[in-house]
Task: inverse folding
């Protein structure tokens, strides 16, 4: 019986590998991110692109937020990446985390996937984390901690990493976006960690995706928008289908031109395009 189970699992595993439709290097990169907790190439690329946009708008001091800190691996990764990006772009980056600290709250709403998450999961070791990182963490319910965050008058928010798992928590934060109006870039890159689970439990009827849909249905000056998944999209490894952008349409800098100055590229006498890989 044990051998039957073993060979069945091997057959199923090999079938999944052989039928995987994307290049195997994607699997390898994902595998490395699961082994090495602070290896998050999507965090690095998102933070870089967000800071690059800020620089184009004349902003040289920004904030990055992680919503759902748990044991702090995401904050550790962000602190590592920020050191490099600050040097490359000559920019200052502040990192802030938000977490209950006590783990998941009691979960009763069907939209929060109570069959997948449970109370107490992802509890934070506050003492150990405080010794490991330099960033400030706001502990408590996200309905209250956003106001605490505003009191410190943070620098411009360039990107937000959503990892709160639940529909309710995600929507609680999104509904407070108007409070943060004075602290946002006109376009804020947002990474949503739980739009997809390997069990395919998530969809438009629950979780983060429902929170995004419900937020967008409101009559606000803010919209969370996907970009089209395209073959030319290469900037966000492991994350390009889980990145949205908060558009603040009435932001005073929303219409400021930040595109490429590429007039020379289209001249007939020029034999090459003046193309910069990281812009």
Result:
């Amino acid at each position: 019986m044990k051998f039957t189970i073993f060979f069945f699992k091997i057959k199923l595993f090999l079938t999944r590998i052989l039928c995987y439709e994307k290049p195997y290097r994607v699997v390898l990169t994902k595998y490395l991110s699961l082994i090495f907790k602070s290896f998050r190439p999507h965090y690095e690329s998102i933070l870089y692109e967000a800071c690059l946009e800020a620089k184009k708008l004349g902003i040289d001091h920004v904030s990055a937020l992680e919503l759902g800190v748990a044991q702090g691996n995401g904050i550790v990764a962000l602190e590592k990446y920020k050191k490099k990006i600050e040097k490359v772009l000559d920019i200052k980056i502040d990192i802030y985390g938000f977490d209950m600290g006590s783990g998941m709250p009691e979960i009763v709403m069907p939209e929060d996937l109570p069959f997948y998450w449970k109370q107490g999961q992802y509890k934070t070791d506050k003492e150990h984390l405080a010794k490991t990182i330099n960033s400030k963490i706001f502990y408590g319910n996200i309905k209250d901690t956003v106001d605490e965050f505003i009191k410190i008058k943070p620098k411009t928010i360039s990107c937000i990493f959503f990892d709160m798992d639940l529909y309710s928590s995600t929507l609680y934060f999104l509904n407070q976006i108007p409070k943060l109006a004075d602290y946002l870039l006109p376009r804020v890159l947002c990474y949503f960690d739980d739009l997809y689970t390997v069990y395919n439990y998530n969809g438009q009827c629950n979780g983060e995706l429902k929170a995004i849909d419900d937020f967008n249905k409101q009559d606000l000056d803010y919209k969370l928008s996907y970009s089209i998944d395209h073959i030319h999209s290469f900037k966000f490894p492991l994350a390009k289908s889980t990145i949205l952008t908060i558009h603040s349409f009435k932001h005073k800098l929303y219409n400021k031109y930040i595109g490429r100055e590429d007039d020379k590229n289209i001249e007939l006498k020029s034999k090459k395009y003046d193309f910069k890989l990281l812009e």
